[in-house]
Design a protein that fits this description.
disordered N terminus; Rossmann fold; single chain; 11 helices; alpha/beta; globular
Amino acid sequence: MQSHAFIPDENPTRIDHAGFYRRWLSMIDDMDYLQSFVSRVAGTNEEVWVPLWREAGKHYEDEGDRLESEGDIKSARSCFLQARTYYSIGRFPGAISAIKKTISEDCNRAYAKSCAHLTPPVQEVIIEHQGYQIKCHLREPKTAGKHPAVLIMCGADMFKEDRGWAGDFCIENDMVALIMDAPGTGDNLLPWEPSSVSAWMAAIDFLAELPSVNAKSIGAFGISRGGYSVMQLAGHYPKMVRAVVASAGHHFGYQMTDQELLNYVDARSSRSQYKFGPKDGPVTFPEWSVEKENELYKQWALPEQGVLENITMPILMINGKKDHLAPIGNIYYMLEHGPAIGREARIYPDAGHCAFKYFSSWAPDSFEWLKEKLS
């Protein structure tokens, strides 16, 4: 029997804040338009999935082109962002095949169009690290002087083009934003493994060297796997990371009960029925097991890496109580370990993974919190 704490819902034929489309709902303007395409989902194999969502995105991109040509830049930007979002659905979980690469290019193109008239602009910068060139997006406030800065850390299936809104929040709070793909995703080809935290550390060093940044006021923000990454980074680089916000995240160090572990494995395994690549290709999400989860804990958990005690800076943790991918026990674990003050959490009892149902509240609040802590 499934525990109420874990609600697996990755069915792409229905819309729910805790389900598959949770990743994009906060970025979609017209839910009826989304529903019109969800109702046409006949499968997730790329042969049918990609054309469907390319059609959805192209409508908005064409409209954006028209509006831009007429000088309505604000409306055009909105359309380009909608196009980006629908192309992003189509490329999920990433550019894992030739077909997925083409719609990933569509997504990147639409996002670039949405940024064409932004002030301050989105700058493409390269971070050189271990022989890799990692393309990132940088935004710096127009105001003079040195500013707090935030490294916006992407996760497993959402990339820097999906996190432009976080850069917007930074600018609204007079902070520098650096948005970077996670190791093993997007434009960050460094393999994802525990040692790849070094890429995030290199990004912090990049920020610290910018003339516009106060090197003593750098924080980090992440969602889902990015939520884990901010905590891992904080533990490995405490002298440079002054405050972090984590929406979800796993493995912090919480060890599930036997029943929780079985429920968690069942929830993760339920995703294996959906194949988002070629029809005859490998599964997108492999079946999980207790043994695999225990092995990942040994590799990734903060106490196993010996960095838990380093996390003494202010931290804000956010999640839904019914998260099936990042058990809520991770937050309680961090509240139980470390300083008695400086740890804050917001848990939404009726929400799932990352509490996307309440994104409109916690997202802007997170950056106001970072501004306060970094200032």
